[in-house]
Amino acid sequence: MDSAKSMANASEFQSAKAIVERYLSLHAEGSYTYRPFMKKGICRGSDYRYHADMHQLLPSAKLGTFSYLWGTYEAADAMKLRFALIPYGPVKIYVNGVLEAGSDIFSERYRSKQIFDLPMQKGTNDLVLVCENTSGGFGCEFGTWVGKLDYYFLMPSLYPAMEGVCYSEPQQTLLETVHPEALKNLTWLPGLPDFSSGHLDLTEVFPHAADDEWAVVVTSFSVAKDTWCNLSCNAELALDGQSMGGSVEVKSGTHTLTLFAKIGEGVDLHITDAKKDCSISLMHPVLGSESAYHYAIAGPFAVRPEGFQVEFTKPFSTSNGLDFWRLEGSDTFLRMYNDNTLFGHWNYPLGVTLYGLVETERMLRDLDPELSVQIHAYLKRHIQKSIDTYDYAMWDKDTLGGATAVHHLMTSLDSLDDCGSFGSTLLEIAKDHELSGYEKLVAVVGDYIGKTQPRLADGTFFRTGLMHEFHENTLWVDDLYMSVPFLCRYAHYSGSSEHLDDAARQFFGFAKYLYMQDENLMSHVYDFDRNIATGIPWGRGNGWALFSLSELLMVLPQSHPKRQALMDLFRNLSSGYLKLQDEMGMFHQVLNMKESYQESSCTAMFACAFSRGIRNGWYHDPSPYRQGCIRACEGLKKMAIDVDGHVWGVCRGSEFSCSKHYYAEQLLPRLDDTHGIGIILLALCERMKLD
User: Fold this and answer.
1) Residue 241 has what pLDDT?
2) How many CA atoms lie within 13 A of 289 on its CB side?
3) Which residues pair with 383 in a beta bridge?
């Protein structure tokens, strides 16, 4: 960080304000992206990879022929895309026309995963896989190298901006080049509907519906100024929400047209009279005029759906159960995506970020009421978006293949990471923010942590059965934060003390495997496959432990039988950490490795926990910890916060290793990483509370 921009001479209030104003200016609002999606061809499965069994897709292809698979990837900057390939037969991978990787005979025989780092240029990149049809297999699985990493490909421009990968009819010989102009000459599948037809065939959209069942069809169009036209249709019309029968006069402006049609009859819409050669071009009400698709279609309904609400964030009831909007053609849906990485998303770093924001909102009610109100409104918008889209996301998972682009963690829930941090923050924000419908998500998180999350025989949480195979059969100190703060709030929410008992139990289970007694530190991970603790006291992992213990001690009754033992653990850990604070007030990425870098998120967590220990009387002698908290916050202002509100020195999300050099040299710090923004805000708030 440029020392000239340091907040070293600023107050905690000024530092927190700079961070918040920057964050809100960049992430205060976001909208969802909608795209067409064909539930056929090459789609992502529940493992988040694309599945291309070309023997199934091209059953008549002859041995020795080839099929080209073509998708595009949008990169914000030049980068390496970590890409997994599981070949069924020979596969070559081209990026922007250049051969970059391919299968080998070993991966083809065993269908084993190969991982490549593919070069991506800024902007649109063409990814082409060339698959050879052999007796051993034809096709591949490809995409993300680890489960729930939610990147996806878009089809090339031959298709209307939809997710997926298209594939060519079998080719006898290989093309001389795989550049787009050569590829466009091939015949591509899956096929698109005839958009030029004036007739909307609803039996193609709903092939199993009865002819006398109903559909709701919505479209938009514009009429030029000083013109008008009469529209007639074989279906019942409603213009801008007003029922008009079978015909309507339309004046200049932009209009929404809703049609109630019987499926067997389809939709035929005509201009019967017009002024000044008035013409209309239908456009999709969500995808807009640039899309080839014109209609949003709901159905089937056994009877005409009176009072049907046209709304594009939630599934609706039909004759076949819950469904969402369809598009022209067969097996084609309107699909929702959240491309705003820091708005409306649900993940554990954002859970911590929003926790820091809500505490800052409360601190600023007197110091800066206007900014406090802005934070309040932002939190409500973000959280409510997450609540409102959950039902859609679960429908998407059940209907469209399993890999969702909204709520992808909660729809693939298999770990505490997926739910605990954000669930805790949801309950925290619900205390003084008016939220609608959050109870369903709280119940899902409570049920998962209480009844589903794997445990050891003594009830301690551990990791097994995850999509992320690297985590299999391990216990992570991080999971104290991914569980305990939620259990603390859930105990109050549900009125059941058993959840506090469960939270207390976790510390003894984790300490059994991870506590480094000689140093009063916590090892990052215990690996049950090798029956070893890694022995590395990772900074943020230890921060999670002490911070989470402070969350529990703040709500655990004085009479609780485990309270004294937990208090002893809090004091012992605090003493171990305090000894490792450096002369600038910072703590290091590997706590007992001074040459590792100064890490901001663990420094903030220790500052928070020290402050809570002082304010609640948990230390026999609070003065060293008061100084430790003050020095940590001074260090953060000098080293981690600049006048523009940037946050520096935060370690990225971690895997684990038995080598301290992995943490010190590969897990490098990032700018404005959400693993640190919220916890630094919490530290600044705690420092203000000390005074």
Assistant:
1) 83
2) 7
3) none
4, two tokens: 């000239």
Question: What per-residue confidence (pLDDT) applies to 511?
Answer: 98
Query: pLDDT under 70 in the chain at which residues?
Result: 275-276
- Tokens, residue 344: 């409306």
pLDDT of residue 112: 96
Hey, which residues does 80 pair with through a beta bridge?
Answer: 119
SS3 494: helix
240 phi-psi bin (left φ>0, alpha ψ -120 to 50, beta other): left
Q: Nearest-5° angle of CA 275, CA 281, CA 285?
A: 125
Cα separation, 645 vs 637, in Å, equals 11
CA dist 272 and 542 (Å) reads 74
Compute the C-alpha angle 665/654/572, nearest 5°.
95
Between the two ends of the chain, the Cα-to-Cα distance in Å is 28
Residue 276: what pLDDT?
67
Edge-first strand listing for the sheet containing 188-189 = 98-102, 91-95, 123-132, 66-75, 166-168, 188-189
Q: What is the spatial distance between Cα 636 and Cα 1, in angstroms, rounded to a whole number?
A: 12
- Looking at residue 628, its pLDDT comes to 98
- Candidates 633, 636, 649; CA nearest to 688 is 633
Query: Residue 258 phi/psi, 5° resolution?
Result: -115, 130
pLDDT of residue 239: 86
Q: Which two tokens stand for residue 466?
A: 């995850």
* pLDDT, tens only, 576-591: 999 999 999 999 999 9
From CA 135, how far away is CA 209, in angstroms rounded? 40
CA nearest 234: which of 201, 269, 193?
269
Q: What is the pTM of this model?
A: 0.95
Distance between CA 241 and CA 244 in Å, rounded? 9
What pLDDT is attached to residue 165?
Answer: 97
